[in-house]
Amino acid sequence: MTHSVAWPTLNRSLVAIIRGIKPSETAQSIAALVDAGFQAIEIPLNSPQPFDSIKIAVETAPSDCLIGAGTVLTTADVDRLADVGGTLMVSPNVDADVIRRASAKGMVTMPGVFTATEALQAVKAGASGLKFFPASALGPSGISAIKTILPPATEIGAVGGVSHETYARYKAVGIRTFGLGSSLYKPGISVDELSERARLSIAAYDDIFGG
Questions:
Q1: Which residues contact 63 (CB under 8 A, 6 or more apart)?
Q2: d(CA 177, CA 146)
Q3: How far is CA 124 from each of CA 13, 100, 118, rounded to the nearest angstrom?
Q4: What span, in angstroms and rounded, lies between the C-alpha atoms of 131 and 119?
Q5: How much is the mean pLDDT over the chain?
Q6: Maximal C-alpha separation, the chain
Q7: pTM reported for the whole predicted model
């Protein structure tokens, strides 16, 4: 039987994606994101020394925050993520073995999908939620069309080309979960600028979805 970890109830269903962050920058950046109101943070594995950064992030953030990795491609990655205390597994693809291993370790899982076939495969594997990527290519209408053939309780996330300026378009088709990447964080950004962007993203979310 496929084990699945439910998508958690967050004050705001937003995942901060901080691709390219260095371990030396992690603690301050995580503190800024948490202070702004983020409860889910992803550090992609194609960042410098990602597992070191994830470990620092886990130690910095409150225990009720989801901290984990993106670009997870193998079960070995999942095991290393578990070793540093990660609780969120995001992948660019649908690999049933990766999803099941992460679920078995109690992680919230969000594999990347683009088609109805991929979405249904991810649901079958026990994914907590689906990351429609790149959302900017599918658009709200494209994601909405695929959404109609998924189980009603499926958590749908839009990632890729999404920012606070596009929340309302997705809300119109019933989507409330977003992964924010380059609109929020770019390598070399100052902590002050990250904090400002994070607060803007949170304020816009609260304005549209109710905070």
A1: none
A2: 16
A3: 23, 10, 10
A4: 9
A5: 96
A6: 47
A7: 0.95
